[in-house]
Amino acid sequence: MRPDPEAGFTLVETLVSLVVLGFIVAGLAQGLRFGVAVSDRQARGIDRDSALDSTDRTLRALLARMAPGDDPHAPTIRGDAGRLIFTTELPANAPANPTRLADIILSVDDAHGLVLRWTPHLHARRLVPFVTQSATLLSGVRRVTFAYFRPPSRHQPAGWVDQWQGIEPPELVRVHIDDTSRHWPDVIVAPMREADSD
Description:
single chain, alpha+beta, 1 helix, 27% helix
């Protein structure tokens, strides 16, 4: 018997087709939602790793080029647990005019950002003070803790201290970043010993 060309789908066949189509659409929507969530998580991870890498590179470059001072009565390196002031050479991509040598302050501001502030370092007397420039290296920072490794002397053994002042840099500088959402490994740099490795 030949099928009737005028015959169509029955109501049951149409309902079954719609149910199957609904399952397919729901599966596609769930897969799309999962894909977007994975993509967002991956983007956040990449941003976090990128922030860690750029902050780590910047801190290492600045601390490795920490310049010793030449006047024992005017210490150029002053640091405590929460702030570090020193003179260094700015990285090649930093705006530096008229000189690459700059006086640096590293600290955490009230907005929980690890902030780098710098002014050009000149040996001559400044007639007009330079405007301090600043850049936030990392946001979401509860605090930063600096530690300084001193060499042994006749009066004290070698070890980490939380304050440093003088014209000579410490043997090592350790930077611990206490982040609100991430765990950062400590940055440990030997000033004036890593400048030629880049």
